[in-house]
Amino acid sequence: MILYSAIVLFVIIGLIVLWAVFAYNALISLKIQIDNAWGQIDVQLKRRHDLIPNLVNVVKEAMAFEKSTLQAVIEARAKAAGAQSVPEAAGAENMLTQALGKLFALVENYPDLKSNANLMQLHEELASTENRIGFARQFYNDVVAQYNTKQAVFPTVIIASLMGFAKADFFEAIGAERNAPKVDFGGK
């Protein structure tokens, strides 16, 4: 009877240890997926940051008196490129998106620029990159949601708190990016 009790206890302890290993590995796997998803966003943001100087150079000559807009784009790009954390990057990228939006709104007032092939190609590449960034952000946030959920539910929450797993930050829209853009077709 004592031997049987010892075997049962050993099996129960073994199952608990096995569950703990699986729970830990699941959390690590999701953490790695978050890092990978952030890396994918970073790749697209780098592409965006690389396109912006070319865009600014094409626009600079035709818009000599719109220097404040160009300067805002350049400064926003620098802040976005230097961001260190997800919340910092989200804020900086939102500022950059706003500055680019203002730049493209001003371009509409310059017919020569609107017909410039280099500008149109850069605009297309930037639009394509913005779509890629959107998809990468969505994937990142999906993985963050899985990770945060996994570590918040019982019984995995026990392993998460014992091993020091912290919640991951979502890549969220901040400020004006949350609002729908206002479209004016010039009518009444």
- In the CATH classification, which architecture applies? Up-down Bundle
CA gyration radius, whole angstroms: 25 Å
Query: Structural class, from helix and strand content?
Result: mainly alpha
Instruction: Count up the helices.
Output: 6
CATH topology: de novo design (two linked rop proteins)
Write the layout of secondary structure elements.
Layout: H1 2-62, H2 67-81, H3 86-107, H4 111-114, H5 117-152, H6 156-163
Helix pairs in contact: 1-2, 1-5, 1-6, 2-3
Task: Describe the fold and architecture.
This protein is mainly alpha-helical and 188 residues long. It has a single domain, classed as de novo design (two linked rop proteins). The chain contains six helices and no strands. The chain has helices at residues 2-62, 67-81, 86-107, 111-114, 117-152, 156-163.
Keywords:
single chain; 188 residues; mainly alpha; de novo design (two linked rop proteins); 6 helices; 0% strand; rod-shaped
